[in-house]
Amino acid sequence: MAPPLAGVVRLAAASRVLVLSLSILARLLFRPYDTSASLNPPCLSSSPSAAASPPTNLSAAVSSLAVWDGVHFARPAECGYEYEQSFAFLPLLPASIALLARSLFAPLVPVLGYRAVLVLSGYVLNNVTFVAAAAYFYRLSVLILKDRKAAYRASVLFCFNPASVFYSSLYSESLYALFSLGGLFYLFSGANTVAAIMLALSGSARSNGALNAGYFCFQALLQAYDAAVRKKRPLFAIQALVAAALRTIFIFLPFFAFQAYAYLNICVHGSSEELRPWCKTKVPLLYGFIQSHYWGVGFLRYFQVKQLPNFLLASPVLSLAVYSIIHYTKMLHQLFRTTSIHMQIITALEESSVESCKGSDDMTVSRSELSTGSTNKTQGNSKVKQRKSIATEKASATFHDTMSANQNIKEIQDEGSILLLPFVLHLAFMTFTAFFVMHVQVSTRFLSASPPIYWAAAHILASPNCSSRRWSYLICVYFIAYILLGSLLFSNFYPFT
Prior knowledge:
By secondary structure, the protein is mostly helical. The protein has 22 helices and no strands. Mannosyltransferase involved in glycosylphosphatidylinositol-anchor biosynthesis. One of its GO terms (molecular function) is glycosyltransferase activity.
């Protein structure tokens, strides 16, 4: 493991220890505002696992760690999807913690009870996956920014982000971050199959994970342009667009499959005598109905005077998101003014090809080492070294050809790349949705897995001028204050975000 990546992993692990320690300390020092989390009515269709719940103090203490939405994630894991509103909580986290509770942590069930083990499984899973997500965040940042120091600074900010408490509790943020950031890393590294699988899983964790399909569409547009304009091969362009369409469908598939499952359970096999309103619509999507009917989500519906404190609570992350969008939009505008889009597309595709080539060469060398080591060690080792040398020379030659072909735009690429464009568009859409459509206070965690926010903040921290120093101080205060506030308020069932 490279030293910067190892440093990010250590920091991510340390940040989880810090957040968990603060949360436990807050629970010990303060009484929870709402103690209903400890109430756990039996499942509508009781199962043997659910029945094994010894009423011990330790079991109750662990179970009470499921607060706010954590209660709604634990319930489907224990009892399945019993109620209409439960389908707002997508199945990846409940399924994952149920699997862990029935396998790795199964010996603890007789001691703690099944529900407590589910909660414990969720905490362990989310803290471990956050560390992996931080590693992918750093690797993705290196690919896009082409600057290891900037990538490291941004990764440190991600490790201690304002929504940290959600990444260390029974929420789906950690799983979403792992699969979205990991999927984007593999996408821009050329491993499209792995990327598609991981991005599809991100859509099983959070509904906005389906938006990650847009990155495949962006990649397909670059490839189609290159095939049609530069290589004069229109069939290759069509092939790229069709492949992207299939991958997009694959990424959306888990979300719509879950909606179909909800339709079958409620509209077809439901016990209600009268069909629910959403069952009668032309496109019966339960998720949108739940958001509107139960939580009042909709365009401008949250614009009320009584919600001003929540707008203030979300204002730091929204301000940082808007700054990130403006900063990278200006950078891209300057880039397109000084370098043609044609050259930017060619460079982006060639660099992606180099990354893919490096990965395949490393795998070839590794497989060769494994296959030749057991039969003829001396001869095998020489062949492996020869193959490794050839593979390295090929990758090096390809890389140098790429660099020599793009010497005129090297300086501009140090400041930005066309690969920033989909990230900016994605963040802009999510910021608009968070401000105008959603419960605005959710913005802190909704935008917390968006890389451009941390890239822009890292840029401010590295800037030497006096104005940037003041903003750097405010950013640090904001990150620290929200970690402390989140650990205190959220853990004790007080409103946070």
